[in-house]
Queue: 4 jobs
Job 1
Amino acid sequence: MNDDSETPQSKPVVETTAEQVSTVVSDEALLFDDSPEKEQRAELAAAVATLKGDLEAQTKTRDALLAKSSLTMEQARQVTDEHIDRLHRYNDIKDAGQMLFGKLAELKGKTVKEIYKDYNVDIED
């Protein structure tokens, strides 16, 4: 037999990543572990598996929605980033307004709730 030829046993049946090998090794360690934390680690492993499944489902949903829309992934990220920037600005302005209402309440000797009522602002705003 030629040294350069490969035997069927030397060819990998399935390519695996380091993460997959690590998962298999850690899963096998859970099976043979008799420590008190075994159940807790098994629950955590199940929770991680559930979260990975949820992530895959959400990724598929996102990809389906992107396929239906005229946006590319980059455009969708840009829209999302712009929305997040607007939310940050809104929150900064809201925080400043709340500080002003707080100072005004302090100066007038009232509660912030009373100041909101005086200016016809909903406390939930």
Job 2
Amino acid sequence: MHPAHRTRRRPWKEIFAERQIIANNWRKFRYRESQIEAHADGILCVQFNDGYMITGSYDSKVHVWDADSLELVSELSGHTMPVRALEFDDCKLFSGSLDGTVKIWNYRNGTCIRTLRAFDNGGVISLHHQRGTLVVGGENGTIRVYNIAKMTSFTLTGHTDWVNSVRLYGENTLFSCSDDMLIKRWDLEKRRCERTFAGHTHHVQSLQLSSRAPVAAGNLPRPGANSDAAERPYMITGSLDSTMRVWDIETGECLSTIFGHVEGIWSMAFDALRIVSGSNDGTLKVWDTTTHACLFTLQTNTVAINCVALSDTRIVVGDNDGNVRIYDFKDSPVA
């Protein structure tokens, strides 16, 4: 490698000090807020990493932003109806629209590589890509599973309404949630539903998986107890019934119900430390992943929060007015 292209190796003390600042900012909920008018209509999906932030909207457009400067890099046009879902990695972007298609983009140069007609009788509501498998959830209640390399696909049926989120897990497992108020676990090899999770009383909008359960304070294992249960993977779902639920994905048991929002939850995300949820009343809540205690509530002065994304330094929120708000816990926190 040419010396000019080498990345400077940072001293561990510098990294440690930076991490301490970020941790203290989260603890005191100190952040720098930025806002951009990202689209002409409501934001339906957002994802970001260290280099890029990408948004999809009711206006049928996908916008690619520089994650640091928040300047628009490119506008990806081609969908003819609202863009409900997107996901990107280092190489490509998948966008799903109510026009029934998924488009695969080279988002760095703005070119569309391929268009997949996922559904003829309804739009694309959700998608997830992992290790060459693309899963698409439909407005008609069906799920289509693609092998991207071979460009083959098959469908899964079982939901009776919009499939709002799909998440691949492991080699052959898929989870989905729907407006039919149910969450389903699918075996992709056998192409059938293995388990149905019931309990929510309104549309289930979001679903996130963890490799380890957030254990509520009242359910901490007894000293000497078998720790296998604490090591099993778990799932958190958010619903328009204004609650989030924590599930054991092996048994189907609902381990905890998280209350706090007054109106329905459109989107949620979580990591090992915190859960972030956005509601129809415009409130953003941050919760402790372990205890499920609500740490902070932020009123965003918008009609509704449609989507949220989370990293260890940022919360990004897309609202129904076309704005994106960035809460940065790394730089220049407010008092």
Job 3
Amino acid sequence: KDNKSENTDLPALPKSEPAHDSFLVVAGTYERILYGLEARVVGSVMTLNPQFIFPAHIGCIKAVSAGGRYLASGSTDEVIKLYDLKKRVELGSLHEHSGSITALQFHGGSHLLSASEDGVICIFRTNDWEPLKMLRGHKGAVNSIAIHPSGKLALSVAQDRTIIIWNLLTGQRASRVKTPQVGEIVAWSPSGSHYIVAYATEVQVYKVGQTESLATVFSKQRILCALVASYENAEYVLCGSQDKRIHIYSADGVERASVVCHENRIKGLSLVDVVLDGVVHAVVVSISSDGRIKTWKLADLLDPICKHAEQSTASDEVMDLVAEPLATYNADVRLTCVASSTATF
């Protein structure tokens, strides 16, 4: 399976349509239960309603991803479970890995990338779930993967203190760089021009094609999840932390604000475009060890920062924001991972 000569050929993703009436939120738990919630939108009001709740694995769920009509979950039981969201049935499971599944990411509805503590990244095509390539470049457990919007590149970080950029057209390693610490999270900016590498208490911002980081974020708190969001022609790094807050940094590494979002540490963040009152808004989904899944309007988090920057000369001031969630659902379990999808059936 490793020596297949054909290209993996991941297509460039079309601009995804924003969700109009509803979108899907999926969360995994320590209790091995998979939660699927429908976020329903009426005007500017959002509600989170359970669609499915079931024990999916025999170990803690570590990763979830949704793409097109498919949903995947991965666990410490070393198995990837697959589901058809349209038919609401389990499709089966993938057993290519020999370690806990640490990361899953769909690329549209055509391909799935999986990563594991076995150090291997696997590329599957969804039309027959055939493993097209096994990417072997890390000498330790892979912690995080991120596919470029073009489908041509992927990033991975691992316990071996390296970040690898993969050429997905060939399934070969394009570059391998040592990191100062163990990289825990990688993520692309929405445009694909930048990416971030998050460590325990730092985030480095990189421009594609450059080996030196553009900026470094220093956090006083343990970073547990991170993503890059675009707003008003600028990019921001959002970090979910041990201190129950989302910390917001500008792309030059300066902390602009933080907001208390939960009653316990924030374990996962996801971003989805949604039409609210006729206007497209980016919505942040957050999960916490407090058992709650919450949705936030990105504008509610970033508008105050933009307004403050226009009025203030003190650029080093970190704002302490208060924001109201759009919706809250209490799963009353220990949540571990989250994904969202605008695909509705």
Job 4
Amino acid sequence: MGHAQKRLALKVKNAAKVTAISTAHLPKFPPPEAIQPRKVEVPRAPFDAETWADAQPPPPSALSAFAHRIGLASVLHSSDLILQACTHSSFVSLHQLHFPDRPIPSTNAQLATLGNSLMGLFATEHINASYPYLPTRVLKAAVTAHVGPMTCASVAQEMGAAPLLRWRRTPNTLTAPALLHPDALSTIPRAITALIAQQRSLPSARQFVQTYFLSREIDLRGMIKFRDPKFALLEMVNKFNRQRPKSRLLRETGRFSNSPVFVVGIYSGEDQLGEGFGSSLKMAEYRAAEDALHRVYLTRTPSHLLQLPTSTFPSQPGAPEGRYSAPELAAAEIQYASSGKSTG
């Protein structure tokens, strides 16, 4: 393929990436600024079709289809609410550049802030109630994995909200980082959560977060890492007033070969706390201590016994409050290797 053919193929590829927009709902098309008069004394600036397309509102049919697709047509009954939830605060400058005479559109800045707090509340109480022995640093990491910016952007992409997003890329400055597409896209689920809480109730917003975010499985085991799991296990055993842990060789094979395998169990009295294998006794003992810590930290409350504090809020104005029975308090958190300031 020659150089001319490669340039043509590149142009066609780039043109395919441009999102096509409907012009049926626009008052004027083509726009007057796109038409260059034949005789002008002062030439106009070149018309940027891609920037102009970004400044146009999505068609009302796309907004209505989005509300029905996520099952919130009865809540987001107005196209203006959906358009506000999909409008980032960075879009204001782009709107004023193309439409200086029109009023400033409503953005999702305040809604996203409120929704972010609500999502953090729902995720924190859900994880804390599900895993009562989880260390603080792992709890924070789990909350970020459930309702963090990247997760919100991914969920918004799955909802089909990317074509409805109105935003403008901003460069990196001394006071603020650069605004990228995932950052703007992540504000849509947060704004929708706030709108559900305002239009319906807090339990309805919690149900939305539970359906789209908290129902996803997160690998918490990979988040729990210890530099010295044997010492962390000793601290945990002392916290529960149990006997000092001891390692026992359970099985082995090929001790004098090139690939030996050892299976070590860690016991506190007669109770086995964990089990691990490895090519050396030290490795097997290390993994056994990790397994014992995982069995405690990842102890999960059964779903039918799970109770959340936000379940006491009424489902609608005037409805009675829900019942909530506080569970028994778990043992205090193990200080070693459990907080962000720990060296373990």
